[in-house]
Amino acid sequence: MNTIKAAITAVGSFVPEHVLSNKMLEEMVDTNDEWITTRTGIKERRILKDAQKGTSYLGIKAAQNLIKKANLDPKEIDLVLFATATPDMPVASTAAFTASEIGATNAFSFDLQAACSSFLYGMSTAASYIESGRYKKVLLIGADKMSSIINYEDRATCIIFGDGGGAVLFEPNEEGLGLQDEYLRSDGVGRNFLKIEAGGSLLPASEKTVKNKLHYVHQDGKTVFKFAVSNMADVSEKIMKRNQLEEKDVDWLVAHQANKRIIDATAKRMGLKDDKVLMNIQRYGNTTSATLPLLLSDYEKQLKKGDNLVFASFGGGFTWGSIYLKWAYNS
What is the share, in percent, of the chain residues with pLDDT greater than 70? Predict the structure, then answer.
């Protein structure tokens, strides 16, 4: 009896038209293109300018792109997972709205929030539903409108983040392709170093919280960088050792696009050369839940059936982890 694996069988993506370049940021805050590029690897990021459109818009567009490319009937989708740190609303499910808008009328749906690791955790969740045998088609969306929670007077954060959305379809595979292993971690100490202080049950919105700009992302950059470099590299190395993978066995590193130096450190620990590292941080910045699916979409034509992919991510909370997946199709 063949073991069912959960394989990615289609990808889709969407980024807004408006480009916010480093040169434009020089006019907004005390920074410059050379400093941003050297420290982060980012040259520009995309921004969803329409204030009437939220994260669901990015997710819907990415899902529609996937559905069109895969010639998929959305009524066949069993589950819609929406990985995001910026849901449209605190209570009403972004996933439920998205599923209805794309015509996935037979699917149940829910949001998944683990900051920048949301999509990685979503991959584990989607795979579990597929491997159970109960569901055949799980649509995993990763999208964030980070511009809605960024203070563009804070040079520590406004240079990093952008908006975007991506989606993948998980289906059963009996050829041994798909998700092979995972190593997921979290540590509540991170709550002190990367957060939005107000707007939750601990500190509800008030005139004071708005005045003090407590509804924007606050980051202790040095501490977060230190944790990210150490932990993202650590779990990536562990997933390789646990699966007896050497450098020659890994075809691609699919790493969260937060900072090029973090990605480089992870690749170095794994023994990988630059030509095995997927990278688009220079064009999009950190799109949080969207970084991993955007990478898959941008590089889809280079991915071959049977390729070994190692995913890695690190996010607020702290949350982090690595996933080993065998690619299931030729584009």
Answer: 99
